[in-house]
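Hi C.,

You asked whether I'd gotten around to modeling the 513-residue construct. I have! Everything is below, sequence then structure, no commentary in between.
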Amino acid sequence: MAAAAMLFIVVLSSFSYLGWAARAPGDERPNFVIYLPDETRAESIGVYGHPFVRTPNLDALAANGTVFKEAHVLHTQCAPSRCAMITGRYMHVLGHRTQTHLVREYEPNFFRYLKDAGYYVSWHGKNDMFSQAAFPLSVSNWTSKTGVPMGKSPFKFGDVGYYSFLSGKSDKFGNDSSSGDYQDILKALDFMRNNPPEPFVVFLPTKGSHPPYGAPLDYFDMYSPDQVAKLAPLRPPNLPNKPKYHDGIITFRDMETLNQTVFNKINAVYLGRVSYVDWILGELVKGIDALPDIAKNTAIFVTSDHGDFSGDYHLVEKWPGGMDDILTRVPLIGRIPGGVKGHVVEAPVNVFDLFYTLTVMAKVNVSHIHFAKSLLPELMGDAGDMNRTVYSEGGYQYFREFEANDPEQRHAYANKDNLYYPRGQEEIKEGCPRAIMAKTATHKLVYRPEGVSELYDLATDKRELNNVYSDPNYQTVRKAMLTDLLKFMVRTADVTPVLEDPRGLPKPPHGKR
């Protein structure tokens, strides 16, 4: 009986759009499709300059639209990043600092504005964004398969390398039904092929490139460690003046004795996953373009919630207080009806700009205070603001913020055979200081009240190998950026609620005087 009830719920969720009102005559608002593969960094994509990775579909989308070369997330963990992108508010405004404090039902967000304005929001993939109560207020229909076929780790528990996240080759191909990510895209295409309610938003937050570093049969060995070593060498470990976690991740994960070839293999597999992300995008775009009535009025966007170390600096996964470029810089590519083709925007932007842009294109009034900026001018050919500073933040300070102390996550961080166990140990024993990043077109500052702060001259050091925060030659730049950061924090420290409260006394309780 329970199984039958669950099947009914799944079927109801899958087809709840049936009977939804059709697009009103004269309503020409665009549809939106947003593909958000998790943990996909920009520099590992062809159009962003990678020398050998094959990403023809991402490159083609850029050639037919706009690519934002300097798009940065608001946080380098899944949930805080997504909470910021959907509200247009920095993490410090509402405290969405952890993986288990999501957007609540009383908080305004861009999807809810669209849904309230008549958009049908169809969601296929993982959450990490809305609380249980908030989800149905902002989303019309949802399903999730989400996952990527991969094999077993070559390491056993207790082996050096066990905690490296290196996994194995699946015995399944990427287009196999065992691929949850592919199934999410097929669900979305099925929705669009079957007389969907318009206008609609299709949101596809898939597993993407997220560790462990394993891949389908046809992607695991697509690239070799030798290719990485010769054509795209990784950033070296043990650089001076780096934050403590650069050493801590290596030691707590017991990776000190792993040789360079292992880290090159990690990166090679990660690149294979990026190519798989690209293949899935190709299937999505091909499916949309096969529906001319839908395609002509549908904007397609690709971005991610954060990047991944994937072997650089001999590090793996990400770090909650890490502001490294390979963590904050993600792809942002868009193709819109009537937009320019082959346009490249070098100006810095934040990812929450994209989600606000959806409401601008939909001509939906946004009434709450937010800090996102519309990207519609750039999508129509504008160069963007090269003087803009973009921000990101992270790290922990209070007991419950640390993931190993979070009741919802404690089970993972308490088990020694869990791949996240070392991270929990490092957070508790070594700390994970709060950090905030300010990045311009020329410099990047990361300020930490405790721990190592960072400053990089991007004109001479784009790979962020030389921290010049304490270099007297950069005293003027450091002082100016710290002053800007202080102004930023004061200006964004809080927001006024939308609803207003009367100042008079309420009526007395019934029957009392």
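If it helps when you're writing up: Residues 23 and 198 are 5 Å apart (CA to CA).

Thanks,
B.
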